From TrEMBL:
Matches recorded under PANTHER family: GLUTATHIONE S-TRANSFERASE
Domain GST N-terminal span(s) in chain numbering: 1-73
Location of the GST C-terminal domain: 82-210
InterPro entries referenced in this protein's UniProt entry, alphabetically: Glutathione-S-Trfase_C-like (IPR010987), Glutathione-S-Trfase_C_sf (IPR036282), Glutathione_S-Trfase_N (IPR004045), GST_superfamily (IPR050213)
Protein name: Glutathione S-transferase
SUPFAM superfamilies listed in its UniProt record: GST C-terminal domain-like
Protein origin, superkingdom: Eukaryota
Gene Ontology MF annotations: glutathione transferase activity
Length: 228
């Protein structure tokens, strides 16, 4: 979202500081103890806003930015209650983050064996694919490429875009069948073609490690090897 916002509003500047997992054990304890860095809850991510406020946790950060920069869209028809409409958008955001993104982190932490139907997390894998199908079905009802007939992406589209591409990057078992992901495929294409996002990806600025699991890189390499 921040890339699109910075492109749209020339007066907006932001700096992305990444805590490298490779140095996490040696650097993070001191940063965590410093509440001027880690914020009220002592964790990541945090947003330092105008050097006056520290906003913590992924969902509140995303929702704050969306409200600040009008990324909740406009209800259609225009006489629909805007508070109800915001709740609908937040429902999509919550599903994308809580039910999909967070659960994919669980998959990475627990090194799920996708070929083993008796794996303790096999049901979670099916749930992730099922939740993506539900989001696809909801998106397919829209008259545009974005949720709820919006002409421009809302916070919901950004979160679902990340959830869907994250699932694709990890394993095909996390995805619904091809016929059940066509709306998500279209959303991904449209989002990747947005100039600011295309620039972001082309410059290789997306950090290639998703979770804090110390074994994520080895696990994902193993998945790639099995695929090949």
């Amino acid at each position: 979202m921040l890339e699109d916002i910075a492109a749209k509003y020339p007066n907006v500047e932001y700096q992305e500081d990444v805590e490298l997992f490779e140095k996490f054990a040696e650097e993070w304890p001191a940063r965590k103890a410093d509440r001027s860095i880690s914020g009220p809850f002592g964790n990541l991510p945090v947003l330092h806003w105008n050097n006056t406020h520290i906003i913590a946790q992924t969902l509140p950060i995303g929702q704050f930015i969306a409200r600040k920069f009008d990324l909740y869209g406009k209800p259609k028809p225009t006489n629909e209650d805007p508070i109800v409409f915001q709740a609908l958008i937040d429902g999509v955001v919550s599903c994308a983050y809580t039910d999909i993104i967070f659960n994919i982190f669980m998959v990475l932490w627990n090194q799920v064996d996708f070929d083993d139907s008796t794996d303790p997390y096999a049901r979670l894998v099916k749930k992730i694919a099922g939740d993506l199908k539900m989001l696809n079905d909801l998106l397919a009802k829209s008259s545009t490429s974005f949720f709820y007939d919006q002409d421009e992406p809302t916070i919901a589209d950004y979160f679902v875009f990340y959830a869907f591409t994250l699932a694709k990057d990890v394993h095909s078992a996390l995805l619904p069948a091809n016929e059940d992901s066509q709306a998500l495929d279209k959303l991904e294409q449209v989002m990747r073609n947005r100039p600011a996002l295309a620039k972001y990806f082309n410059e290789g600025r997306l950090y290639n490690r998703f979770s804090g699991s110390p074994t994520e890189e080895q696990y994902r390499a193993k998945l790639v090897a099995k695929k090949n």
